[in-house]
Design a protein that fits this description.
The longest helix is centred in the C-terminal third of the chain and has 14 residues. Strand 3 and strand 4 form a beta hairpin. This protein has two domains: 131 residues, Aminopeptidase; 150 residues, Aminopeptidase. By secondary structure, the chain is of the alpha+beta class. Helix content is 32%, strand content 28%.
């Protein structure tokens, strides 16, 4: 039984393992293209696999990781992101070995954004820190279709269809909640939808990152579009340029995910960056994002991992709130960079929902 570098010919065997654990991969052609087009590190060996011997086809473990660029103050660092960590139930004992091998890679920082409480405990045992705790441990959400939310909840709880209609009658007053929501946009702010990251967004990100003294993932150049290309395989992406009257002040990215099993459409605020001089318009912008999300058919909008500066202006009183068991955003510095980490750095880390894993 040995570890091997992953090769592209392993795709169908990796896919079999992933699907057995209820996850999915992009199509093979897309998967391969994404690995070799990573702007930070074009890698021919996307992670590691575990199998009985070199000639065996059956894969019992797969841990993929990819590189991103992190900026702290005026320096740039390579960060390895743990993406897909899947192990066959009979070989759970090698999970720690896979992770330990990952932490021995040549990188400045290691990142995960796992919602799995047990995985988070393991990372913390290795010395990982929670990042931006005020924002990343919370999920704020806005419900647009109470009926669909209730139906999805009942389906998830395996309630027979014949009882779902009866339950609707008892909860009918809740459905009027949708009618009385304020669905009017503020005309001071408007959006322009674009198909791809254009020069205006590229230049904005370049200036935004150059002026930022906090830890921040690099989105300029090809980085942001590369990441969007990954998540487009199972989500509908809307790229919105934000204007205050005729002045471009930032952008937002919405990811609409349709869960066919529970008949629910969830919209995620995947990323939002606002010019620092216009943060006072945060709540107007978010209100218009609420309206936009409802208009594209979302049943619910989720907001999490907000940039701490945006979070400071965020009026959360009009949103529902739920908590993670743990802050899913965890960072582990390499030994040579341990001295860079302190409480202020961790609190002021600029985060978005696009940071972290993407199940490659």
């Amino acid at each position: 039984m040995k570890f091997f570098n992953t090769k592209f010919i392993d795709y169908k065997y990796i896919k079999k393992l992933i699907y057995s654990n209820g996850r999915s991969l992009p199509p093979c052609k897309t998967w391969k293209k994404l690995w070799i087009s990573n702007p930070t590190n074009k890698r021919l060996f996307p992670g590691e696999i575990f199998k009985l011997n070199k000639n065996s086809y059956n894969i019992y473990a797969y841990h993929s990781h990819f590189s991103k660029t992190l900026k702290i103050k005026k320096k740039y660092y390579r960060m390895e992101v743990s993406s897909n960590w899947n192990v066959h139930p009979k070989y759970r004992t090698i999970s720690i070995q896979l992770l330990n091998r990952f932490f021995n890679k040549d990188a400045d920082f290691f990142l995960t954004t796992t919602g799995n409480f047990e995985v988070a405990k393991i990372w913390k045992a290795f010395g990982a820190y929670e990042v931006n705790p005020n924002s990343c441990s919370k999920v704020y959400y806005k419900i647009f279709n109470t009926s669909n939310i209730l139906r999805s909840f009942l389906i998830k709880k395996r309630i027979p269809k014949m009882f779902i209609k009866i339950i609707y009658v008892f909860f009918l007053p809740l459905f009027f909640f949708d009618i009385f929501q304020n669905n009017k946009k503020n005309i001071l702010i408007y959006f322009q939808k674009v198909k791809k990251i254009d020069n205006e967004i590229l230049n904005f990100n370049k200036n935004y990152e150059q002026n930022c003294k906090d830890p921040i993932e690099i989105r300029s150049g090809l980085n942001l579009q590369w990441y969007l290309n990954i998540i487009q395989h199972n989500k509908k992406i809307d790229i919105l340029k934000i204007y205050l009257k005729d002045l471009f002040v930032g952008y937002a990215i919405l990811a609409l995910e349709t869960n066919k099993d529970i008949l629910l459409k969830r919209c995620f605020l995947a990323e939002i960056r606002i010019n620092q001089d216009y943060l006072k318009f945060t709540n107007i912008i978010l209100k218009n994002i609420n309206v936009y999300s409802k208009n594209i058919g979302a049943d619910i909008l989720e907001i999490r991992n907000l940039d701490y500066k945006i979070f400071n202006f965020f009026d959360n009183s009009k949103y529902f709130l739920r908590y993670f068991l743990n802050n899913p955003y965890l960072i582990l510095p390499a030994k040579k960079n341990q001295k860079l980490i302190n409480k202020k750095i961790l609190s002021n880390w600029r985060t978005t929902l696009l940071d972290g894993d993407c199940l490659l």
